[in-house]
Amino acid sequence: MVHESLGLVPPLAASSVHLPRIDALVQLDIALLFADDGVIAGASGELLRAVRHMQTVIPSVGLRFSQLQVSAASYELRPVERFRLFADFGCTPILNGNLEVLKSPIGSAELCREYCMKIARKQQSVLTFLAELGDAQVAHYLMRWCVNGSRMNYMVRTTPPSSTSTAALAFDNAVTDCVGVVCNIDVIDLQRKQARFGIRGGGLGIRAVSDRADAAYIASRAVTHDVCQAIRRAHCWFDGSADEHL
Q1: pLDDT on residue 105
Q2: How many CB atoms lie within 10 A of CB 235?
């Protein structure tokens, strides 16, 4: 919808919703949308045009922004005067480089670890519900195919293991704890490991997120490497620095 209203893509032929389009095409470097989350990036003047337009379009279709944030591409510059312009349109300035982009944290190591733990705690609340459900077969099915297969897996693909490892391990332990409650048994360490085996291997098929966090992150880096280089020419696979996540 945002792409269509900004003139970035033509409206769908079969669509019954006709949005007011911006007069002149907005020149953006990045325009990403994922479900109800999104990021646009570019020169500050073009971003201001986009924000002004979206502030008009979004309410016209019965929606609203829960939050709008603006951050500089280079934090050393700190263009405060530009931030004031965005603040006039309801955008909260992010001055320290710590932000969330498409449900993933960017910034300090402390911020990223805490964000990942927040995601793990949120998923654990679902496990609490399953433990109280009282149906072992339903709980097992959901734990195998749903509960540990969405947000946690996405998290370890987009965020370095140095930030996700503690949260992933806490979540994995919560999953096997839930198995113990559902089956009314005290789960020992050996059983925790066995639960992660496939059904054919005598396990429960509940794969651990922490076991594949490294591989998931490296695979994600590999498959997006060319795209990252196209967006930012300075992007490299490994720069040799001590804090390089690879």
Answers
A1: 92
A2: 14
